[in-house]
Amino acid sequence: MSNQLMYYVARILELYSYVLIARVLMSWVPDVERTSIGRFLVKFTEPYLGFFRRFIPPLPLGGGYLDLSPIVAIFAWHFVTVGVLNVLSWIL
Predict the structure, then answer these.
(1) Which residues, other chains included, contact 37 with Cβ-Cβ below 8 Å and sequence gap of 6+?
(2) Would the pTM of this model clear 0.90, i.e. be above it?
């Protein structure tokens, strides 16, 4: 039973990391955020990504800006995933 729980928790956390990556890739294509899938991804990921945007300002790059907060957020999500799985394995 504990192995199944670990498996499902790991898959859910992994799925969210894929959603984060999809959101970052989606930001490179201008009109994708206006689709129903795009609106869902924005609504689902913005609370997490917005937290990092408050602390990491975009870097000026030529005529625009480079937002590094999604990169930091994905790395942080990896550490959260590893931490949650380690705590669960210790508890179970």
Answers:
(1) none
(2) no
Place of tokens 């705590």: 87
At residue 61, the 3 state secondary structure works out as strand
Residue whose structure tokens are 């206006």: 34
Q: Coil, helix or strand for 92?
A: coil
Q: What is the pLDDT along the chain (92 residues), one digit of tens a residue?
A: 678 999 999 999 999 999 999 999 998 888 898 999 999 999 999 999 999 999 999 999 888 888 999 999 999 999 999 999 999 999 88
| Chain centre to alpha carbon of residue 31 | 20
Distance (Å, whole) CA 57 – CA 49: 12
**Helix (H) or strand (E) segment spanning residue 65:** strand 64-66
Domain regions of the chain by residue span? 2-91
